[in-house]
Amino acid sequence: MKGATLKDVAREADVSIASASRAINGLDNVAEEVRRRVLEAASKLRYVPHGGARSLVMARTNTVGVLLPDIYGEFFSEIIRGVDVAARARGLHLLVSGSHGDINEAVAAVRAMGGRVDGLLVMSPFVDSQDLAAVLPLNLPLVTIASRIGKVEQGSISIDNFGGGVKAVEHLIDQGCKTLAHISGPPSNFEAQERRRGFLEAANTALPGAEHRLFEGDFTEESGYRGAKAFLNACAQTGEPMPEGIFVANDMMAVGCLLALREAGKAVPDEVALVGFDDIPIARFASPPLSTLRVGVFDLGRRGLELLVDAMERDSLSDGEDRESGEGIVVSPELVFRDSSRRRAPPA
Amino acid sequence: MKGATLKDVAREADVSIASASRAINGLDNVAEEVRRRVLEAASKLRYVPHGGARSLVMARTNTVGVLLPDIYGEFFSEIIRGVDVAARARGLHLLVSGSHGDINEAVAAVRAMGGRVDGLLVMSPFVDSQDLAAVLPLNLPLVTIASRIGKVEQGSISIDNFGGGVKAVEHLIDQGCKTLAHISGPPSNFEAQERRRGFLEAANTALPGAEHRLFEGDFTEESGYRGAKAFLNACAQTGEPMPEGIFVANDMMAVGCLLALREAGKAVPDEVALVGFDDIPIARFASPPLSTLRVGVFDLGRRGLELLVDAMERDSLSDGEDRESGEGIVVSPELVFRDSSRRRAPPA
DNA sequence: AACGACGCTGTAAGCGTTTACATAAAATTG
DNA sequence: CAATTTTATGTAAACGCTTACAGCGTCGTT
């Protein structure tokens, strides 16, 4: 039941284990005849090299570990795509794991990756991610995506969430919204807090003294739905009008929001204008198509991996101790103006 | 620059390497005092066990390999979610790889996984996947998802694509469509061919003698757009009316189709009714919401992994040679009736 | 007081590879 | 044709870890 080992192949081909290894790895100092016999034996026995043994002796795995909050869904999937494309271009494999928002799971995942990867790409946008830093192997090159982890990383790529929040508000104001509201992400999420901060600062600047409704969601479609419902109910009770513009902290929630608004018979964008965040693929297909702050999620993944590869090369070349904390790229989200915020008559 | 090894930890804690190992793995035959010293040394040195070495000696990795055509996008992402949920429930890790439709890449991926995983979950819906079977390590438990790979697998879970095609046609007929068309997936894709076959058989049965327009897409949104355009152009040229019902072989293409139809000012569903396939999350949000054949993509992944775990357990228990080809589950897609095919006045 | 039982610890073998080094055979040279 | 280089092959060590086994105190029991 055990798989064939190199020893088996060598015996079958009647050569030494060293020659077998050389033949299989395509080194040139092997007689053609021997190579033929070895390859034949290998395929006959369905030999597959033991990656663990190999990485043990070679001290490299050609694999990078990717740790994300989740490994599915529009957003993370798109990150993975970026990472995948960049990784395959360099012949690297991916060990992907999701932490499900749980620091302990993240720690467990990191340990499980230990010794199986040459570098780590981590996204852990939680406010308490510093705990993660404490267990990260010192020797592994590390790049973070949109995470505040500490100063252990050799590179990082992050999003200007605050600036995005500001842009969203400015856009809604441009479109003539006189009252604003915000559906935020969870308080435990660093990014969500930054977006909220951006919203508040810009909203207070543009509409001094005004009250802005806030609802705390958790980045799921369902919570966006609840958020819109909450605003609708509150307005029904107090008799106040609905906010004219809502900045929703991610597109998934904005989609839920759209659903609730449609159910309630509120016209988007004319009664309520909506701006999301992320520009996940689904945003284009929502009805009306969703205005949003494009982050370039694909590029987040791609450039993250590139940064990591750089760090890995630096690391292996200069076997030195000088591990300077690498560059920190910040990308600015860009407004994508679609129908959900395109008001017919912005009462200038 | 190298990471700390167990030996380093042992030296630091002033114990033997064996005791260090025992302490770290939580065996009970270690003195409390020793355990404390070891754990302290380990965290001081940021020790992370070398997974390769571990799997080498233990002959297991607690990791399963997942090979999909791609590892992103609505469909595969949803599969991964199912696999992830089931895997984490069992404490298994995931080594994920995409083959990008290239058999050689798939082969490379399988080799790269060799010796790093305890089992393999493979989806390779290509007509020439038999080539893959030839390189799969004999000893690894293998489960396939929606793939015709040969008889090497210990289990498989697949979709009744033919039946789904039939259901789609029957539904369109029910809705009063008198003329039908089909946008198919690529000819190299086994599943696409089955759906097409289902369409043709049912269409010929329901509408004997009629011609059905066909367009060959490649499962991308863009090709769906092209397909609809092709139908529109052909009809404009010949003066014939548009087909009243289109069965599109997956939802992504159906979304593209919807876009083209909207651009052309064709009313969906009243002028043209549409049915997709898969029920990916985006289907609900299209406008109009897309009727489709739900496959339960999440469950495909989840049950696939469960099958694999079963096979792995069988494998390790009965160390026997009896590897019977495991069960083959077939799931039937179920019609989800949304607005894209809900015709006001089915002219009975 | 001698004995076995028990609990903790260390020594060393072995997991499947790669690769430096030694060796043997073949090819090149003067 | 002997001396020398080149080329092909084999031997054995090393990678970091787990674990069978042996060693050795410490007890409790006759």
From TrEMBL, chains A, B:
GO molecular function: DNA-binding transcription factor activity; transcription cis-regulatory region binding
Domain HTH lacI-type: from-to ranges: 4-58
Keywords of this entry: DNA-binding, Repressor, Transcription, Transcription regulation
SMART domains (UniProt xref): HTH_LACI (SM00354)
Pfam families to which the protein is assigned, alphabetical: LacI (PF00356), Peripla_BP_3 (PF13377)
PROSITE patterns: HTH_LACI_1 (PS00356), HTH_LACI_2 (PS50932)
InterPro entries cross-referenced by the UniProt entry: HTH_LacI, LacI/GalR-like_sensor, Lambda_DNA-bd_dom_sf, Peripla_BP_I
Keyword Translocase: no
Species annotation: Asticcacaulis biprosthecium C19
Presence of keyword Repressor: yes
Record protein name field: Catabolite control protein A
